[in-house]
């Protein structure tokens, strides 16, 4: 998959599947699946580093995870621009986006559009594909008063619709819509030519993205909207306890 395939997939009504990935071992597993593309989300701050929000993910963290994932997969990778990296001027944004592409990303994701129009446009014109992210943008955790569903007021609906249109006009190749009402996600999906990738906003988007550990049932907290495709925590616990029993009983843990 390349950036050019995203609008084509929308045109041909072929849904786009995306999951997050942060490390080499899962990247090698994903490489053997039918998944279309990978998001190295700044959710790594929470999932891999145990922080309560995505805010502590900095460019060093994102570069490290991007390199690890790229070492094991040829799939299309989008890496998140960390908190405030697009708010410290053009030079800083270009430097950070450049680091992510050099580390192996094919594109970067930027939360929100307002106030970042020049930066998004400049990155796109510089050969750095940009995926937009609207709705519940976790970097706005403090402004939103928590990880809260968006698009619940008229103002919020108008802002999300306007920003989606703007993302398309600025040259973004796709837009993630997170935790907004299904009807709003559907309306946006029908009103723009670039694909929408949904999370927690129904089935009408042009694709879906989930946090890998959530869909595999490995997370200690999983958002209500996430379907668990594996009872990961339980399966891993059982396996680890079996190992412990083998160690305690002096049973060999070598494969035959
Ligand atoms: O960081 C992330 O994992 C994300 C997805 C939840 C869309 O941005």
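^ structure tokens above, recovered residues below v
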């Amino acid at each position: 998959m390349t950036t050019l395939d995203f609008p084509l997939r929308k045109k041909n009504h072929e849904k786009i599947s995306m999951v997050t990935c942060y490390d080499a071992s899962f990247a090698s597993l994903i490489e053997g699946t039918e998944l279309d593309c990978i998001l190295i989300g700044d959710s790594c701050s929470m999932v891999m580093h145990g922080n309560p929000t995505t805010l502590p993910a900095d460019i060093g963290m994102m570069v490290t995870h991007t390199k690890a994932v790229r070492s094991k997969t040829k799939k299309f990778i989008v890496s998140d621009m960390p908190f405030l990296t697009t708010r410290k001027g053009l030079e800083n944004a270009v430097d950070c986006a450049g680091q992510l592409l050099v580390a192996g990303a094919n594109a970067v994701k930027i939360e929100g559009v307002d106030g970042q129009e020049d930066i998004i446009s400049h990155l796109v014109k510089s050969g750095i594909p940009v995926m937009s992210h609207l709705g519940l943008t976790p970097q706005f955790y403090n402004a939103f008063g928590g990880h809260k569903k968006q698009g619940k007021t008229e103002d919020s609906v108008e802002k999300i619709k306007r920003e989606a249109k703007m993302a398309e006009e600025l040259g973004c190749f796709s837009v993630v819509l997170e935790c907004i009402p299904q009807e709003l996600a559907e309306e946006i999906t029908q009103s723009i030519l670039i694909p929408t990738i949904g999370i927690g906003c129904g089935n009408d988007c042009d694709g879906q993205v989930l946090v890998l550990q959530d869909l595999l049932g490995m997370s200690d907290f999983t958002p209500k909207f996430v379907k668990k495709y594996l009872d990961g925590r339980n399966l891993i616990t059982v396996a680890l306890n079996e190992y412990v029993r083998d160690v305690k009983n002096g049973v060999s843990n070598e494969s035959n």
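The chain is about 40% helix and 15% strand.
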